[in-house]
Amino acid sequence: MIRKHFAGFAASALALAISAQAFAGTVTTDGADIVIKTKGGLEVATSDKEFSFKLGGRVQADYSRFDGFYTKNGETADAGYFRRAFVEMGGVLYSDWAYQVNYDLSQNAGGDNRSEDGYFDEASLAYNGFAPVSIKMGRFDPEFGLEKATSSKWVTAQERTAAYDLVDWANGHNGGMGLQASGVAGTSLYGSAGVFAKDATNASEDGDSTTQFNLRGVFAPMHDAGNVLHFGVNYAQRDLSDTAFDGRIRSRLGMRGVSTDGGQDAGDNGNRLTLAGAEVTPAGAFDTDSAWGLEAAWAIGAFSLQGEYVSREVQADDDAYEDINADGYYVQAAYTLTGEPRGYKLGKFDAIKPANKQIGAWEVFYRYDNLSAEDDNGKFATVDDVEGKVHNVGLNWYANEAVKISGVYVTSKVDNAENSVGDDSGDGFVMRAQYVF
């Protein structure tokens, strides 16, 4: 039902825009003049900038083929799906208030098994009257990591680093709500602090939601496109005391098609790496779940280099259990063959804008992901010290500012784990067509 409402709203907005162009006439208002922009979506704003409304979105259609460890029987499988299909609505109210609503029709943004009608990826309200501090509330992703801060439209590889799979709760909203304060100091410092209530499926014995807080700090002494030096630190913690939860630490190793929503995947033959934990973790087994991370990036002209390190500790709350530890990292290098730099805004990378409208911008990249976990709880993991290593080699074509075509070859190797036929390595490729409006 919600999806129908959004579709109807989008259709009405489109009809309004077409009607405005089709019929000559006079537009009158009871306040300031109205300015209408159509580049990159439909945007309507008052000339005094007190109010604005923008309707846009993104569609990412993926196709992949993979074999080896990525399937249970080792044979080749494929997947075709919408990775994201967002309708996005945002703007300004009374100058100091900002709102953003992103609805994912593909069901994929929120994770596994979302509603068939779609999913609210974000629904937030922010107060900016205390500039340079912004106070944000509602449903949105907690801040943790450079790759997560960068929009999914403009991350270099189709999927963010597999190292994030170790700390997926740290930068995902999981259907919860949050309150966050963020701001800048000068031109080089950025920080945020937030508290969140989420994971209704992981509720405590009393029905309380899981409480989480996040901290992020960024120092970027160089912060212009093509001239970036960036350092960041992150910390997140959640309370699992008296909570039964799904404690599995799993990874798709860069190949989402093994198990995805929003379309066809490998089905029962898809294989995901389990590094630690158990699906049914009893209440009282663990207490504090904490994660911290480091991030760094450097860009000069058309070349960029970035990396992150994440570490997680799940502390046991009972003498019958042992702590679970995990850590991971990635290193990525990218180069734009046509010379354009990657965009950058304080705390995150942004779009590459083609200089030549005929040939667009062409970017090549390589990323290495490493993730591992140690779980000495015999009742949870059959093997400890599981490790995954993933190589990603890809090409991005920014045909224009709205269309991006991507391809990546992915190969992985795991230690102390294998599929049902003994494979401990796999490879495949992913193609993506992206349209942003």
TrEMBL record:
- The residues that cross the membrane are none
Any signal peptide, and if so, which residues?
1-24
Coiled coil located at which positions? Answer: none
Domain of life per record: Bacteria
What Gene3D superfamilies would the database entry show?
Answer: Porin (2.40.160.10)
Keyword match Signal: yes
**What InterPro entries does the record point to?**
Porin_dom_sf, Porin_O/P
> What UniProt keywords apply to this chain's record, in alphabetical order?
Signal
Q: What is this protein identified as?
A: Porin
